[in-house]
Amino acid sequence: MDWYIPLGFLSVRKDDIIPPELEIFLNAIPVIDSLFSRRCVWVNGPVIVGAGPSGLAVGACLREQGVPFVVLEKADCIASLWQKRTYDRLKLHLPKKFCQLPKLAFPEDFPEYPSKKQFIDYLESYAKHFEINPQFNECVESAKYDEACRLWRVKTVSTNGSTRTEVEYICQWLVVATGENAECVKPEIEGLEEFEGEVVHACEYKSGKQFSGKRVLVVGCGNSGMELALDLCNHNAKPSMVVRSSVHVLPREIFGKSTFELAVTMMKWIPLWLVDKILLILSWLILGSTEKYGLKRPSIGPLELKNREGKTPVLDIGALQKIRSGEIKVVPGIKRFSGGMVDLVNGEKLEIDSVVLATGYRSNVPYWLQETEFFAKNGFPKTTITNRWKGNAGLYAVGFTRKGLSGASFDATRIAQDIGNVWKEDLKQKKQKVPCHRRCISQF
Ligand SMILES: Cc1cc2nc3c(=O)[nH]c(=O)nc-3n(C[C@H](O)[C@H](O)[C@H](O)COP(=O)(O)OP(=O)(O)OC[C@H]3O[C@@H](n4cnc5c(N)ncnc54)[C@H](O)[C@@H]3O)c2cc1C
Ligand SMILES: NC(=O)C1=CN([C@@H]2O[C@H](COP(=O)(O)OP(=O)(O)OC[C@H]3O[C@@H](n4cnc5c(N)ncnc54)[C@H](OP(=O)(O)O)[C@@H]3O)[C@@H](O)[C@H]2O)C=CC1
Ligand SMILES: O=C(O)C(=O)Cc1c[nH]c2ccccc12
């Protein structure tokens, strides 16, 4: 039922003093709401949507600023991408110093590339340390800025067995932390629906164990496709990997130093195009030509491509060796699936048992955020905006600059500072005012 109290005309703001006659009406809201099982909750501080690394990082930085907040998370745990939608053998592929969140470093005994379990343990202790207690199982279904009362109205749905509860949160600031990987991309390919074998997306893949002895078509050759093909090999499956266009494969390390770190260091001194040239020369010296194995390189360099299109270069952790040895077969684009076969664009036909779609992810922001000035149609902040962490009217985005966890940490620090400044200014003014009336609606 889409029914709600039209708060708009009331113009209720965080620090407004509510006249007694209005308070009578407002106090009736929970009663009316309970009839329709919708609660209305005033949040003193920002609402953060998503309890992944980005949402937690903002929470931690806000804690330091003394700003209260509410985190809404649709899953039943923090970092659901890492806990529920990644494979067992996953490790961070950038060195740990680029992946830790603000204000709390990784434990000293962590290896250079922490495992998924170590990363999750760190995030759990991070949430505990900063006393971040998200509202779990609450999916944000819509968020809209109410011009009349100059507040955000965030509607969530939570289901507990057969009980469905709707809540509306009202707040001054909205922090979008739902991530670049919120939805799996499952392309429509002719015949795939009728394919007889198992079809899973990378986000459902846990281990190659269940594919042992099987011929598996891995669709996509990003970091997921490469690492899953390697995992399949390690479990005695027979993977073929679809490379429909091009890919930059870089060694994870160059002369024992992280390639990523080397790139970051070089970028401080020389232009991006030159860093790209150097990376490609060094990669060629270490890996040799990748083109002869069917891995054509894009015409633009790896970092420029990441910046322009968000396409992450592959940081090789062993798949290339398996490609060289023929254990991973590289195949071109798919024409169609038919029965237990796949027809490729070069006319070749392959018999396969299973398909793993390593075809990437997308943002889910367009499905729930009713806003078009800051966010583009693809669910990322518009690239024309200078500070891609700050929109209008108290809207913020964290973790959408395609710079991985270090980008999220950067955004989180800026966002908390920005909100903290307004918060402190408000507090100062409040101290000069008469005390507030009791809040009209449930308050966090
Ligand atoms: C397999 C994989 C490996 C990666 N490895 C690295 C790496 O090594 N280094 C690196 O820097 N980056 C890496 N990344 C990039 C990745 O983006 C970050 O690691 C990180 O998870 C991003 O954090 P986030 O909080 O922005 O998004 P997420 O981790 O996706 O968290 C978003 C949260 O929002 C919740 N949510 C979504 N929609 C709603 C809604 N409507 N209502 C309520 N809650 C919602 C989700 O359930 C989720 O818990 C990797 C990505 C993938 C897919
Ligand atoms: N160890 C780690 O830390 C890991 C990190 N990651 C990160 O997660 C993010 C997502 O990576 P990933 O899941 O690989 O997604 P990507 O978006 O990087 O790659 C998707 C791949 O799927 C291909 N593809 C998409 N649609 C089709 C289609 N219809 N037919 C054939 N091929 C198709 C794309 O080809 P095309 O280029 O032609 O569009 C591309 O090769 C990245 O940022 C990555 O770095 C992922 C795994 C491990
Ligand atoms: O792992 C990812 O998806 C990242 O986004 C991390 C990242 C940010 N910039 C990069 C450049 C090269 C390789 C990985 C990354």
UniProtKB/TrEMBL annotation:
Protein name: Flavin-containing monooxygenase
Family statement: Belongs to the FMO family.
Native organism: Nyssa sinensis
Necessary cofactors: FAD
One Pfam family in the UniProt entry: FMO-like
Catalyzed reactions: indole-3-pyruvate + NADPH + O2 + H(+) = (indol-3-yl)acetate + CO2 + NADP(+) + H2O
Recorded metabolic or biological pathway in which this protein acts: Plant hormone metabolism; auxin biosynthesis
Superkingdom, natural source: Eukaryota
Annotated signal sequence range: none
GO biological process: auxin biosynthetic process
GO molecular function terms listed in the Swiss-Prot or TrEMBL record: flavin adenine dinucleotide binding; indole-3-pyruvate monooxygenase activity; N,N-dimethylaniline monooxygenase activity; NADP binding
InterPro entries xref list: Auxin_biosynth/cation_transpt (IPR050982), FAD/NAD-bd_sf (IPR036188), Flavin_mOase-like (IPR020946), NAD(P)-bd_dom_sf (IPR036291)
Keyword tags: Auxin biosynthesis, FAD, Flavoprotein, Monooxygenase, NADP, Oxidoreductase
The protein's Enzyme Commission number: 1.-.-.-
